[in-house]
Every structure is written in C-alpha cells, then in structure tokens.
Amino acid sequence: MNTRILLRAGLIAATLIGPVQAATEIRDQVVAIVDDDIIMASELRERVGAVTVNLEARGVQLPPEEELIRETLDHLILESIQLQLGKRAGVRISDEQLNSAVQRMATQNRMTLEQFREALEERGQSYEAMREQVRRDMIIQRVQAGNINQRIQITEDEVGNFIATQEGQTLIQPEFHLIHALLPIAPDAASSEVSAASAQVEAVMKRIRAGEPFAQAIPASNSPYTFSGGDLGWRKLDDLPSLFSDIVPQLKPGQTADPVRSDSGFHLVFLEAVRGMEEVVTQTKARHILIKPSEIMTDSQARELIAKLRARILAGEDFSELAREYSEDIGSAQEGGELGWTNPGQMVPEFEAAMARTAVDQISDPVRTQFGWHIVKVEGRREQDMTDLATRSKAMDYVHNRKYQEELDAWLRQIRDEAFVDIK
Fold first, then answer.
1. 308 & 403 share domain
2. Model confidence pLDDT, tens digit, residues 101-127
3. Which of 64, 86, 386, 419 could disulfide-pair with 143, CB 3.0 to 4.6 Å?
4. What distance in Å separates the CA atoms of residue 228 and residue 264, rounded to the nearest whole number?
C-alpha cells in the first residue's frame, strides 16, 4: 500500500465514531512523526475540513481528495518544524498581541468582533480554534523573519539598478487619489444645451472656489443636471485617463482642476491626496532626559524628579551633564541625551507632541510616555528634502520582499530536508 492510500485510510479510520466490530476501537492515530512532535489523524482531519470550507467559500474548485490530504499534511509538517524552532528560540505571543491581531482581522472584514465570531461559527469553524491558529501563524511569521532577514543582503548598487529598470520606474511613480464627476452631454448636442450644461458646471466650480467641499458642490442626482462618476481611488501616473494625465500632476491636494470637455461631456477632477511626489519634512534636533518608574520609584516620584531636573536646567545647570547623570535611556544618556535630527512619526506620539509644542532652545514640560517621564530640549528645526531617500527606501522594500520570498522557499526546503519526518 503506498503513502497516499495509507494517508487516506488513516484519515478515514480516524473519523469512525460508532462502535466497530473489532477487539479494539480506533478513535485516533498518529499519521506523522516530526522531530519531537507528532501529527494526529484528528488534527489532519480538522485541517482538511477547514481548508475545504475556505476553498468552497472562495468558489475555488477542490483538488482530488488524496491530493488535498497530502498537501495539507505537508503543510502541517512544515508548520510543526517551524513551531518547534520557535519554541526552542523562546518565541511567545501574548494574549494582548493575539487579541489585537484577531481584532484587525474582524476590522478588515468590516465586522465587529462578535459578528466575526458569528460568521465563523455559521461556516462551521470554531472561534477558539481560529484564535490558536492565528497564534501559531504569528509565531511562524516571527521564526521566518528571524531566519530569513539575516540571509538577505542588498547593496546600494542593486537598489540603483532596480530603480533604472522599467519595473523600478513604474514602482516609484507618484500616486494620485482622485474624485471624478462627469456631466454627460452628447458630442452633437445643440449649442443651447451645451451652454446650459456649461453654465451648470461653472456654477459648481464657483461653489468649489468659494470653499465648499467638492462632494457637496456636486448637484444631487434629482437635479436637472445629473453628474456621474465618483472615487477613482489611487492611480499611478501611467494609469491616469489620458484626458487627465497632463492636468493632475499640476494640482495640489485639495484642488479641483478646471472643467475639461470631451465627447462624453464635462469632467471635473478633484485631487484628494498624493503620495510619492517630492517629500519635504520638518526635522527636529533634540535632547531628552528619561526617568522610569520602578519598584523603588513610584510614578509620582519619577514625575517629581523630572520636574526638579527641569527646574535645575532653567536655573542654569547644563542639560547634557544632567542627562549623563540621571537619564535612564541607555541609548542616549552617555551622549548627553542627544537624539540627533528626527523625522515626524519617528518618536512615540506623546513625545512627538511635546517636542512639537516646544520652541527652539526651550525645555518642554514633563511628558509621560510608555517609557516613563521625559523632558525635551529642542535645539533646532529644519526643512529636509527626503524625496531621494523615500524613493530608494521604496525600491529597497520591493527588492527585499522579492528576495525574502526566494530565501523563504529555499529555507523551507532546507528545514524540511534536515528534519526527521516519518509518515505512518
């Protein structure tokens, strides 16, 4: 009997529920040994059932039964190997992290958590089993990232060469989020009809120029002149309708282009947002002192100490010296609390807000973050063109992702070959 038949026979045997005419009743059995782990027929049966439900829900034709069982077992074997690697490395997923991941899944499906649970149960899936599978998937993702990222090396030349390709040029093109409204009018419409439609479009533009939001300025569908169109989503320059390709790049977010006439009618185009164009950011140069609450220092005591340090600095003591003596940020304390030039979004929100409120050469009020109590000294601000850096960062991410998949496939083959696997 070959492996396929054995797998199928084992799976069928494990599903027997009623009494059997034999000395021993078979309820479950081992279908594979994987290093220090085993895979039971019940586990394989449950996973085959879940895969079947998912494929049917997506309208995908099911493969032959033996193929489905074999591929599912192969997946379980690889999963087991990676989970064992994660266990040996001490990888853990907290309940808080798991709850956040499940909540994101519900949100992505436009459901509340309770609606998500009910939808799963209606499909015959266990909510608790789904949570545990998500936990396993998160552990596997961390194991993969830890092993694959260290295998990937990307040079500056690789990034530059990729940007020079057609694929690279397409990737780094700016993207435009457009809202479109069309007032239809036939190409051979009478001049009086064209004039009336033109007057209506101009009336809409007058309202927009006066500050009325684009969507509100467009007449309702029951008006004498009905506009069609809507949200065009994010479009790269090459994907823009030719009618707008020369107009849109000249707009700034929040602007509406002058009306355009085509054989279809009068077009209005509003630029909601743009990304990938010239990126100039305001950078801030700062220092800070951090005091952390602990078992020997309460939160209020930490707040009191950071306030005293602020008073000493305002009285003339040197910020850098006090940072070296008192700051508990091991990354900056020995540098006098020096943080260098920071970009928007680089710091946690509370710290960022305090830094933004503080003028150059001034000391912030004490601010609480997840790390403890801080005071911040702002030493400078500047406008920095980040366009080239952003372009290369986007290209590097693309090259990294492509290499990641290649390295992941190779690594999975490697750990599968190196593992002890005995299929029963």
1. no
2. 999 999 988 899 999 999 988 887 889
3. 86
4. 11
